[in-house]
Amino acid sequence: MDQSLLERIIRLDENDELNIIRILILIDKMAGRNQKQTIDGINKLVKLDFLLRYPVALERALMKLKKEMDILKIDIKVYERVSVETNLMHFNYGPWDSRYRRFLTILETKGLITYIISGNTVNVVISQIGHKTVEDISSCSEFQDYVIRSGLIKKNFGSYSSKKLINFFYEVFPEMVTMKQGEEIKI
Predict the structure, then answer these.
(1) Going by C-beta distance under 8 Å and a sequence separation of 6 or more, which residues neighbour residue 140?
(2) In the beta sheet, which residues pair with residue 114?
(3) Tens-digit pLDDT profile for the chain (187 aa)?
(4) What is the pTM of this model?
(5) How far, in Å, CA of 143 to CA of 80, rounded?
(6) Strand 184-186 to strand 113-118: parallel, antiparallel, or no bridges (unpaired)?
(7) What pLDDT does 171 receive?
(8) C-alpha–C-alpha distance, residues 151 and 44, integer Å
(9) What is the pLDDT at residue 10?
(10) Over the chain, what HEC string results?
(11) Cβ–Cβ < 8 Å for 66, 169
(12) CA–CA distance from 27 to each of 31, 35, 76, 112, 173 (Å)?
């Protein structure tokens, strides 16, 4: 029996390895060319990953910024446009997936990322092993969309604070403003 496209997409989203690769590519791109920049807080990482995970959301955000040339680079596939169901939940500080702590723990345990604690903020840093892994992964055509989109996210939103991102999200995705905490986000 053949699975529907939606069932296949849902199964892919449940694949921890694919989620971990996506997040690692994003962390690496956010580190910049010199691999020295950090992501200031897990909440910021989650918000940036929301844009990577849902290219339709990235497209809407770039439209708000009037970045027509960057919008063309997103190259959204048909299945990405029709898959509007997400398992991200709305929390006080924007989108959140309960699996992020597990994903980040796996990345840290494998030595692909490290953390730097600064006051109450947990800064996420790519390790040399993590960067080398992303270099290897980036040669695979299957992950080129993540690489390109992560670069666009870094370019357009990398300098945003977590607070500025959530305020921007509420402008671009006004449906989030009225959502109840714990409600599933649908873009």
Answers:
(1) none
(2) 125
(3) 445 544 554 454 567 888 899 999 999 999 998 888 999 998 899 999 989 988 999 999 999 999 999 999 999 888 887 765 445 544 444 566 678 888 999 999 999 999 999 898 899 999 999 999 999 999 999 999 999 999 999 999 999 999 999 899 889 988 776 766 656 666 6
(4) 0.84
(5) 15
(6) unpaired
(7) 92
(8) 16
(9) 46
(10) CCCCHHHHHHHHHCCHHHHHHHHHHHHHHHCCCCCCCCEECHHHHHHHHHHHHCHHHHHHHHHHCCCHHHHHHHCCCHHHHHCCEEEEEEECCEEECCCHHHHHHHHHHCCCEEEEEECCEEEEEECHHHHHHHHHHHCCHHHHHHHHHHHHHHHHHCCCCHHHHHHHHHHHCHHHCCCCCCCEEEC
(11) no
(12) 6, 10, 21, 10, 24
179: left (phi over 0), alpha (psi -120 to 50) or beta: beta
Q: Write the CA distances from 13 to 2, 93, 115, integer angstroms.
A: 19, 22, 26
Asked if 79 and 9 touch (Cβ cutoff 8 Å), the reply is yes
Domain definitions of the chain by residue range = 5-172
Name which of 164, 170, 148, 169 is nearest 25 in CA terms. 148
Tell the burial category of 33 from Cβ atoms under 10 Å away from its Cβ (0-12, 13-18, 19+): exposed
